[in-house]
Queue: 2 jobs
Job 1
Amino acid sequence: MYDVKGNLHLVQEQLPEGVQLVAISKYHPAEYIMAAYEEGHRVFGESHEQELRQKHEQLPKDIEWHFIGHLQTNKVKYVAPYVSMIESVDSMRLLREVNKQAVKCGRVIDVLLELHIATEETKYGFSPDDCRQMLAEGEWRQMEGIRICGLMMMATFTDDTDQIRREMLLAADLFDELKQQYFPTLDYFRERSWGMSHDYLIATRDCRSTMVRIGTTIFGPRVY
Ligand SMILES: *Cc1c(COP(=O)(O)O)cnc(C)c1O
């Protein structure tokens, strides 16, 4: 088996105090997750509803599951009862549905707003202006089933570290702006989720990340 424990420790040692590690376990078997779990790690991320459902049923119930993929509105009801955070809220329609399903099961679900800053068209998310507009419209203030805890983004997949830095800093600056304008007294609005296997050191050292989502560096290459 891949040296999950060793890799987990190497990553943990590199993260500054206060940066939350979300171990991205998509496409990896339950025993890999258990290897990290046995080392005390509890926060894992998945990007497909069915895979998450199976792993949630199979694995210890004190695992905190973050949903990080594109979530179809008709799948929200399946994750709402147990998911710890939905990092990938990429539309108002999805936010409304998460709120509705959370209220139905008597929960408040933590969410992040996903930004689309990267140049790839395949990525989902709000443009910075759509994000501003959505918050300005204010409907979210009436939603009792959700807490908007911050922003999430994926930088462009490139070797150009300046471009990665530019994109992450744009997200960090938008975070500051939104914090000041809409959440100045709300402590829970504090997460800046950026940084993956190839760029997490840029994210934490230079771009004010508070949460990194790392899969390959911990679990090895994914087998699709
Ligand atoms: C798969 C995935 C990751 C982890 O990617 P690695 O390169 O394996 O670290 C992080 N964030 C999102 C949104 C993902 O889909």
Job 2
Amino acid sequence: MIDLEAERALTPGCIDQVFLDSAGSSLPTTRTLEVVIGHLRREAEIGGYRAAAERADDLAALPASIGRLLGCDPDLVALADSATRAWSLFVTALPWKPGDRILICGNEYASNAITLLQRARFDGCQVDVVPTGPDGEIDLDAMAAMLDERVRLVSLVHVATNSGHVSKIPEVVELAHAFGALVLLDACQSIGQLGVDVGALGVDALSATGRKWLRAPRGTGFLYIRREVLADLEPAAADLRGGEWTGTTSYTLRPDAARFELWEHDVAGRLGLKDAVDHLLDLGIDDVERDVRDRADALRTGLAHVPGVEIRDVGKDLSGLVTFTVAAAEPDQVKARLLEAGVTVSVSSASSTLLDMRERGLESVVRASPHYFVSPDQIDQAVTAVEKIAR
Ligand SMILES: *Cc1c(COP(=O)(O)O)cnc(C)c1O
């Protein structure tokens, strides 16, 4: 069980406000904050190279911490500066050729879609959308009918940016693999709030960010690549971290996923990421998931009873993102008025998840995403604050 009071004491940012934006950019612990600031201070005292050398052991252990979180070996983890970067490192490493097909789903994230549409423009690929069933799940029959040997990649989103729904992944992966397609999973909104095991999911690659549910500093993220796939992949632009210049016209690449990394990076940010991931591992992801779901369920149930509020999450398996609209006010107004009442939420607009929002005729939704450090009392406060706006 998570000691709520102890966790709240480690998170001063959650005391004076009801913080419901861990799907946007969460609150780090004071310990993580001190790790980051302490390292920046050390860099100013002795220079960045010596400061990094002092922390070499912790930096080298970061992939192992992430590997424990994902259930994979550390050499399959590449560190990046965001989820989008991690995701596009994988996509741009694939050897695209004209006529290759890419399948995306209704909950695709804008940044991913833009990168894929660039593949269509630059490389002559074709991007097609797999329909979603009324239950919010990918329509497997429709997908089977769309698959052929030209489909090189299926892009899946585990939890969309505008809904708590957790997509079923293993069945989709199995189907894609039967046609020889690779599966890339955007786990940006699931890592840190849900147990994620890359072996059980079966995906070929997975991307995630630090600043959301992991409570790590901004500018951090990572990519997992399945071993069998990694061997054949070359990053579009390797540097002297991922490769070695061995002769006038020759170079070699590292054997591990770090071939996708660049030499220069935010060392303080990575130390902060390590601290945040280790904290989560200490708490136990199962306990974190249970508490996040508990808070989100309480919020969703509370809001569902407020006249004039409509819950916008579709599907059965709903996680820590609670999305809703209020008849009496636009989402931006709801966000502003909640902030006045001491409740921090965000707004997810159609441009982030265009296909899904257009299909449902939505311009934007309010998104409230409670982490385990939000107290049950604060959830009640948030419901009361929404009630006042909805009147
Ligand atoms: C936030 C988000 C991203 C992008 O993460 P960055 O770290 O900002 O690149 C990608 N996919 C989903 C579903 C997201 O919610």
